[in-house]
Amino acid sequence: MTTGTQPLIVDLFLSVDGWARGATSPGYFGYFGPDLEKWIAAELARPQLVILGRRTYEALASLPEEARDESSHRMTELNKVVFSTTLATAAWPNTRICRDDLITEVSRLKGESTVPLRTMGSLSVVRQLCDAGLVDRLRLMTFPLLVGTSGLEAGFADVAPIDLELVDHQILDGRVLLLEYRPTGRDIPRM
């Protein structure tokens, strides 16, 4: 991370076999618990600018009121940038749609923002940001299951190799593993 820029933090929820979702997987792969709930609330309480892709935006913004919790309401309060060439409007408060080039705009935001940038889910956005070298922290929440043949979205399909350094880890609810990595910038050894 260059001095004078805000960090970009990427959070992905994955199964042990690397799927971001499965055909029949419920939210949080069915492993939502009190530690995970506290972690989500604590992370959302931090100042941040949320970067989303269209599909993640639509999923989060369209939650019915009866399904909204404290975290959902906090997401409503946060400033959000949705990268989409197809969305015409954003009804979710504090949200703007960006049709500009993702890499150019996120680079600009990192330099101009007064708060860290964070993305949750949004796999196509995450893959592009990883390939562009813009990710400062990669946090993987690994859920204790193999999605197997019902897997629909591989977390890092087609991402260029990146050397990572483990900087933190936690176990939540005695079963969910949170791994936090920092890209090292080192080349990956070739065989």
Description:
With about 190 residues, this protein is an alpha/beta fold. It contains five helices and ten strands, in the order ββαβααββαβαββββ. It has helices spanning about 35-45, 55-60, 70-75, 100-110, 125-130; strands spanning about 10-15, 20, 50-55, 80-85, 95-100, 115-120, 135-145, 150-155, 165-170, 175-185. The chain has an eight-stranded mixed β-sheet, sandwiched between helices. Strands 2-8 form a two-stranded antiparallel sheet. Helix 1 runs parallel beside helix 3. The longest helix has 12 residues, at about 35-45. The chain starts with 7 loop residues before the first strand and ends in an 8-residue tail after the last strand. About 25% of the residues are buried.
The fraction of residues assigned to DSSP E strands is 25-35%
Note the total helix count: 5
Order of helices and strands: EEHEHHEEHEHEEEE
Number of strands: 10
The profile of the biggest β sheet is: 8 strands, mixed
In round numbers, the mean pLDDT is 92
Q: Per the principal axes of the C-alpha atoms, what is the gross shape?
A: globular
Secondary-structure class? alpha/beta
Helical coverage, percent range: 25-40%
Distance between the termini: 29 Å
Poorly predicted segments: none
* Strand order, largest beta sheet: 5-4-3-6-1-7-10-9
Q: Specify Rg, calculated over alpha carbons.
A: 16 Å
Summary of the model, kept short:
By secondary structure, this protein is α/β, with parallel strands linked by helices.
